[in-house]
Structure formats: structure tokens, C-alpha cells
Design a protein that fits this description.
Layout (H helix, E strand, L loop, with lengths): L1 H22 L3 E9 L5 E7 L6 E4 L3 E4 L2 E23 L1 E8 L2 E7 L2 E21 L2 H52 L4 H13 L3 E2 H8 L3 H13 L3 E6 L2 E6 L3
Parallel strand pairs: 1-5
Antiparallel strand pairs: 1-2, 2-3, 4-5, 5-8, 6-8, 7-8, 9-11, 10-11
Helix pairs in contact: 4-5
Length: 250
């Protein structure tokens, strides 16, 4: 009887020692971890761990001043695990501590930590910072303001140059007109027309050409040219049988 009880005790003790080993489950994970600007974490993927997958939680993050700390640690042993952590745009990572191997890369302005491990606990600790939205907006407004100022200066310079040039041109024309008015003061209408014709053509004209252009009688042309010659405004040049009339040079 004693032998039977002894055997039963041996079997019981042996079973008790082996039971945790037999029942111990090997965990695995292949997960994607997303962290947003407010520190909320979402973990999706494939795993047999009971509480690794989670949706939009602050459980794994904490913040001190401008520094965020992401801490996803499971004390259970994982036969193998693979993960990818995507941080918000304009993030910067200060340090990383993980139970496996990892690498950091960038994709479209977002930092990504990818890692893996075997027969280890699942542990990822990351300290990071996220540039404030207000700072980003302020920076964009600053660039926009600088661009507007540069464009405004260019427009101002172009407009100023246009009106300055126009004003100078008007002043010159006014002075020319005033000089012409002074020059033609005291002349008759026909004499003014002769002067304007010679000034426009800018070359010597025969009396017959002046007569034809202005449709003035020949005698009137001759009389007015003689008057202009006496006033020192024109001069005659005899070329064969005709006279060429030109403006007298100052």
C-alpha cells in the first residue's frame, strides 16, 4: 500500500513540474504600430498574444514638456516578432531601446522604425519629439509673407519705373512743345504750317513740294518763306532752277 501511495506522489510531483512547460505558449507577432500627433497608438497585425493588438489608446505613451515617450513592453517571451512603427510627420527621434534588432528610415516626411527579434520579450522604448502644428503654420506663413513682400517690391519697382518714365517723357514733350510754341510765336498760320512741315520731314524741301503738300498758292509760299528767312528760321539753297528750303540750324 505504501509503495502505491509513493508512486502516486511521484507521478503527481512530476506532472506538476512538467505542466507549466507543456502548457507554456510560444507567442509571435507581426504588427504595424501607428502613432499620431496626440500620442494615440494603434497596433494592428497578426499575433497570438492576448493584449498586444489595440486601437487608438494612450496606454503606451507619455509626455514631459516637448518630449514623448513610447513604451510597448510585454514581459512574455516571443519566439519571433516583427514590427513597424510609423511616427507623425515632422517627428524627430532622440533615442531607441528595443529587445531585438531595428533600423530607422524615412518615407514622405514620416520616420519609421522597423525591427524584429527571436526568443525575446517584446520591448520597444522610443523618445521622440513632434514639431508643433502652430510652429509649422507659423513657418508657412513666414515663407508666404516673405514671398508676398518680394512680389510686392517687384511690382512697386515696375510700376514706379513705368510712371517715372512716363512723367519724364511727358516733361520732355512739354518742354519741346513749349520751345516749339516760343519758336512759332508771332508767325502766321501758313508760316507755322511751313515750319511744321519742314520739322516733320526733317529734310530740305523745294518750294513746289511745300506748295503741293500744303496746298497753298505759289505766291503765298514764296512770300511766307521770304518772311521766315528774314526771321532767321529757314534758309534757301539754290539748286539749279529750284530753291531748297531747310530749317536754319541754331
Amino acid at each position: 500500500m505504501g509503495i502505491i501511495i509513493k508512486n502516486i506522489l511521484v507521478i503527481f510531483l512530476t506532472s506538476s513540474l512538467l505542466f507549466p512547460i507543456i502548457c507554456a505558449e510560444e507567442y509571435y507577432a507581426d504588427v504595424d504600430i501607428n502613432v499620431d500627433n496626440s500620442g494615440f497608438v494603434t497596433i494592428d497585425g497578426i499575433t497570438n498574444h492576448p493584449d498586444l493588438l489595440i486601437n487608438y489608446t494612450e496606454l503606451y505613451t507619455s509626455k514631459k514638456q516637448s518630449y514623448w515617450l513610447l513604451n510597448i513592453t510585454k514581459e512574455d517571451i516571443f519566439s519571433d516578432f516583427v514590427y513597424s512603427i510609423v511616427f507623425p510627420i515632422d517627428s524627430s527621434i532622440n533615442y531607441v531601446k528595443t529587445s531585438g534588432s531595428m533600423r530607422i528610415e524615412e518615407d514622405q516626411g514620416k520616420l519609421i522604425i522597423s525591427g524584429f527579434g527571436q526568443n525575446k520579450t517584446f520591448s520597444i522604448i522610443v523618445q521622440y519629439q513632434v514639431k508643433k502644428t502652430a510652429e509649422i503654420i507659423m513657418t508657412n506663413y513666414l515663407y508666404l509673407l516673405i514671398t508676398i513682400i518680394i512680389i510686392g517690391l517687384i511690382v512697386f519697382i515696375v510700376v514706379f519705373y513705368y510712371f517715372f518714365k512716363k512723367k519724364v517723357t511727358e516733361k520732355i514733350l512739354k518742354e519741346i512743345n513749349e520751345d516749339a510754341y516760343d519758336e512759332f510765336r508771332g508767325l502766321s498760320d501758313r508760316q507755322k504750317k511751313i515750319m511744321e512741315l519742314l520739322n516733320t520731314k526733317n529734310r530740305p524741301l523745294s518750294q513746289s513740294a511745300i506748295q503741293k503738300e500744303l496746298n497753298i498758292p505759289k505766291a503765298a509760299v514764296s512770300r511766307n518763306i521770304s518772311s521766315l528767312e528774314l526771321k532767321g528760321l529757314v534758309e534757301k539753297e539754290n539748286i539749279g532752277m529750284s530753291n531748297l528750303i531747310r530749317l536754319k540750324k541754331p
